[in-house]
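Lab notebook, design round three. We kept the backbone fixed and only want residue identities now. Task for the bench partner: fill in a sequence for the structure below.
Input structure tokens:
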């Protein structure tokens, strides 16, 4: 009877204590969240309940399993397995707590600051910091798991002795990866590009959707995702339409006939912008910027609060202005003029003389003599 009750008490007690501690911690966090609702930290910490229970249960079983007297011939293997579970659960808990702290700090910063550019910069930085912490904790956890095996502990001395050679080989082999890693840190803390920025890369217009330590994802206007290494943004030029402020100025060009009514076009542009909700009201204008023998180039200048709205304003002005010109002033649209070509004075005299001689019945003179 004792052989049956002992493992039931040890294992069942460990599980029961784990569940009770997890329930008590969750209740305390709920109460703290209700009292301090302005701070999201306590509510976010509730996400750590599951890894905390794994850590507690693994620790209790690891310390008390010998008392169960079960499978004595496999005690070493079971203890090794519980140690690995404990290390992995601890790493999971540390990563989850670090993520909660980072998210809570970012939420408080975003609530206290209204500058979108600064908020996007902090968001990019905390996201990369979180990934660095996750990578470091993961590597340390794997190393700790390997060190629990006696064979790996014995090989540790020889690995340290050859660390210099291995470092050189790894550095050469992972040159591109390390370059992207440092480029990601440079982007995060150099404020070159941030999550949510509107950029133009390789002729593609889109919004930065994700930044990791090795790659950057840009979501284009047609819902495509362009993935490129972060080293691209530290080695090649690109357009960042959100840097220095989200407000933008856009242009719309028209190729019209020289007789186009410019004064009426300015009044029509003002009316179009007045009805366009995307126009921010900062500035507008219309001017002739170039001419050709058959047309002139007219530029309409408009403003908006961000890249999305400037696109809306431009297409609205282009569409409604062309429709208005077609309905009210069709003569202002470009035309192809056809007429008899005028000859140069010398060529015209020669053609006239040839015509007169031919009409008199005499052959035209050619050459000399």
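Proposed sequence:
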């Amino acid at each position: 009877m004792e052989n049956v009750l002992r493992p039931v008490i040890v294992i069942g007690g460990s599980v029961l204590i784990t569940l009770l501690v997890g329930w008590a911690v969750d209740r305390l966090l709920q109460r703290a969240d209700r009292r301090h609702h302005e701070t999201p930290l306590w509510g976010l910490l509730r996400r750590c309940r599951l890894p905390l229970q794994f850590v507690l249960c693994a620790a209790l079983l690891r310390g008390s399993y010998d008392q169960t007297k079960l499978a004595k011939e496999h005690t070493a293997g079971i203890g090794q397995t519980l140690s690995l579970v404990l290390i992995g659960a601890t790493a999971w808990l540390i990563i989850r707590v670090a993520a909660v702290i980072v998210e809570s700090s970012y939420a408080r910063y975003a609530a206290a600051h209204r500058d979108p550019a600064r908020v996007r910069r902090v968001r990019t930085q905390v996201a990369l910091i979180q990934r660095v912490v996750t990578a470091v904790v993961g590597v340390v956890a794997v190393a700790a798991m390997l060190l629990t095996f006696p064979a790996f502990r014995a090989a540790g001395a020889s690995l340290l002795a050859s660390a210099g050679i291995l470092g050189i080989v790894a550095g050469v082999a992972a040159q591109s990866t390390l370059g992207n890693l440092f480029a990601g840190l440079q982007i995060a803390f150099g404020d070159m590009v941030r999550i949510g920025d509107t950029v133009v890369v390789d002729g593609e217009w889109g919004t930065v959707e994700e930044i990791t330590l090795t790659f950057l994802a840009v979501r284009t206007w047609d819902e495509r995702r362009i993935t490129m290494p972060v080293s691209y943004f530290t080695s090649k030029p690109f357009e960042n339409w959100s840097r220095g402020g989200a407000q933008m100025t856009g242009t719309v060009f028209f190729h019209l006939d020289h007789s186009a009514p410019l004064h009426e076009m300015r009044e029509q542009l003002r009316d179009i912008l007045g009805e366009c909700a995307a126009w921010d009201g900062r500035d507008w204008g219309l001017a002739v910027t170039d001419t050709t023998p058959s047309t002139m180039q007219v530029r309409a200048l408009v403003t908006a609060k961000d890249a999305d709205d400037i696109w809306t304003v431009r297409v609205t002005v282009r569409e409604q202005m062309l429709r208005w010109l077609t309905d009210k002033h069709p003569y202002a649209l470009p035309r192809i003029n056809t007429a008899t070509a005028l000859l140069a004075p010398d060529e015209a005299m020669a053609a006239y003389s040839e015509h007169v001689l031919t009409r008199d019945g005499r052959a035209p003179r050619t050459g000399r003599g």
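Keep this in mind before ordering anything: The longest strand covers residues 279-291.
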